[in-house]
């Protein structure tokens, strides 16, 4: 029986085009100015220090780090430091109403239904926990954060690593056999499955014929009974 559902964001609850055509360009546009102004703020300084460690350049100055961050953004690197900084930068965009967090129309009714049935809901994304809370706190349908019991980012591990799902299961305090992971990316689902989780792939666009996971196109097609042991 499924007692908790953990969902990915990009390509699962939200359109990949919102992330790549709205969020990422907005962060890129504001990155340099934001870092130059806020470089001494504790959260920014901590993320920049994490980045220095990631690239093994303890002496790198802010301008050098900005260059690295542009490269990371070009490569869509799931760097924990980059993701932390993007989350900080997006904050003013959400607060000013420059954009709202995209949700596919089938997502909110399903989340509400599961929540009402007593199933705990969690998020796991490469985006930082702060960025996840912003997306769901300022979503197209308003603040829906009350539906979620918790959030996980790459601090638990990368999304294609089995250990990340083991860590999440430990923190949720449920056996893997009672957990369902929703994602559009086969390799993430492979890792969750290897950790003993149930898995379901969202196909929002192109088919994935190499996947061995159950697939649906929308949340309203998800039948939790199929995952009962
Ligand atoms: C929290 S929204 C921004 C998502 C993001 O930065 C990203 O890299 C997408 O990663 P995901 O793990 O959701 O595919
Ligand atoms: Mg995804």
TrEMBL record:
Pathway: Amino-acid biosynthesis; L-methionine biosynthesis via salvage pathway; L-methionine from S-methyl-5-thio-alpha-D-ribose 1-phosphate: step 4/6; Amino-acid biosynthesis; L-methionine biosynthesis via salvage pathway; L-methionine from S-methyl-5-thio-alpha-D-ribose 1-phosphate: step 3/6. It catalyses: 5-methylsulfanyl-2,3-dioxopentyl phosphate + H2O = 1,2-dihydroxy-5-(methylsulfanyl)pent-1-en-3-one + phosphate. HAMAP family: Salvage_MtnC (MF_01681). CDD domains: HAD_EP (cd01629). This is Enolase-phosphatase E1. InterPro entries: Enolase-ppase_E1 (IPR023943), HAD-like_sf (IPR036412), HAD-SF_hydro_IA (IPR006439), HAD_sf (IPR023214). Its EC number is 3.1.3.77. Binds 1 Mg(2+) ion per subunit. It comes from the Bacteria. Belongs to the HAD-like hydrolase superfamily. MasA/MtnC family. SUPFAM superfamilies: HAD-like. It is an enzyme of class 3 (hydrolase). Its cofactor is Mg(2+). GO terms for biological process: L-methionine salvage from methylthioadenosine. It holds the Pfam family Hydrolase. It comes from Pantoea alhagi. Bifunctional enzyme that catalyzes the enolization of 2,3-diketo-5-methylthiopentyl-1-phosphate (DK-MTP-1-P) into the intermediate 2-hydroxy-3-keto-5-methylthiopentenyl-1-phosphate (HK-MTPenyl-1-P), which is then dephosphorylated to form the acireductone 1,2-dihydroxy-3-keto-5-methylthiopentene (DHK-MTPene). The gene is mtnC. Monomer. PANTHER family: ENOLASE-PHOSPHATASE E1. Keywords: Amino-acid biosynthesis, Hydrolase, Magnesium, Metal-binding, Methionine biosynthesis. One of its GO terms (molecular function) is magnesium ion binding.
